[in-house]
Amino acid sequence: MASYNSNKIYLIESLEGQDKQMASDLFNYTIKPNIDKAIEEAEYIEVKNKDEFLQALNRILDDVKNNGKFPYIHIEAHGDEKGIGLIDDDGIDWPDFTEIIKEINIASRNNLFISMAACYGGYIVSTAATELYHNYDPRAPFFGFVGPTETIYPSELESGFKGWFRELLQNRNTKAALLALNKESQYDANFEFNNCEGLFLVVAKKFGSTFIANRMKYMHKEPQKYFEFYKDMFEWTYDRPFAITDFQTIITSNDFYTDFLNKKREHFYMIDLYPDNDDRFKRITGLEIVPTK
User: How confident is the model at residue 288 (pLDDT cuts 50, 70, 90)?
Assistant: First the structure.
């Protein structure tokens, strides 16, 4: 896995009663005692509604832009298939949340790590994957993410994230932290763990198996629609008008699609903004594609 930089943990909490106490205990007895030189500080932020939640995220963004912070954000809240629930209102949906953290990740040079102690927290990964699959030039909303994909008991979250932060902060070992998270939570389903590179490669493979392996079938089925589809892709990739002599390329060449995905890679990993990111993330050098049925 590519490396990332974090120097401050922000725990954002919107809970009540015993759930709130467990979030506070995680911060005071696991996170704070294990702060080291790599993680310079940690901050606990309580929010009750969407406005306060957005204010907290905007303050983190300001910390990145003006104070040199590379944030790790941990969310303690309730969640469902629609989004994050907050104490005093309906909360914020996953697509909106993903757009907001994307701004933080852009400012932090694709170093943002997110962990979600909330049911269905893994939905931000599917939200990011959908945008990456359908758009030419999306940005990664996070470097890394971990959280549950389904409903989960608060006690499972508490136990699991104690193990996660202990290993992450004491040993700086993400693999060991993930093992501790799954083992100590005793959660029936494994936590979703992904980074932007793994997400990109999965989506690239799906794209290849759909639109590259099946290009002749699509062109035969709906020639005008898919000619325009591949023509637009070609023009975006090479930044020049499509010529009739290029038709053979979109029909027979895999190099064109590799070039397309590598240009998409530059945007997603923000290499166009931060050239040093080119060394952090793999290039697409070949396509392993299996035609979809």
Answer: low
